[in-house]
Specification:
By secondary structure, the chain is mainly beta. The chain has one domain (2-102). Helix content is 12%, strand content 39%. It has one helix spanning 80-92, and strands at residues 2-11, 15-25, 34-36, 47-54, 62-65, 96-102. Strands 3-4-5-1-2-6 form a six-stranded mixed sheet. Strand 4 and strand 5 (62-65) form a beta hairpin.
């Protein structure tokens, strides 16, 4: 079993939220693989792609997940109300909201 600090970005047209959680895996996920994160309230519909893995001395691995691609014609994966719902639902699952900053990457892929 491997404990990893997982970093997840969720975005709306105006905000970018960073959530973190330590998750235990049976095997180490690899870059390019997808993870479905537990979300009992809203469902685990989204496969988040592992974008980066960082190994630190005297610490467990850190996984950075790609942001979800926006639906056709949209600039972000969620609208403002949906972002609030998903952040709250992931908080129930043990995710910690680390930061919220203005989304300056409108329309660009992560």
């Amino acid at each position: 079993m491997i404990s990893c600090l997982v970093m997840l970005y969720l975005d709306s047209p105006t905000r970018l939220c960073l959530l973190e959680k330590t998750i235990v895996f049976h095997t180490m996920p690899r870059v390019g693989e997808s993870l479905k994160l537990a979300n009992r309230e809203l469902g685990d519909y989204f496969p988040f792609r592992v974008a980066e893995i960082t190994h630190r001395e005297a610490s467990g691995p850190e996984l950075m997940l790609d942001r979800l691609p926006p639906p056709d014609g949209k600039s972000a994966a969620f609208d403002e109300a949906e972002l609030d719902e998903y952040v709250a639902a992931y908080a129930v699952e043990g995710w910690h909201l680390v930061s919220t900053v203005p989304n300056t990457s409108r329309g660009r892929a992560a």
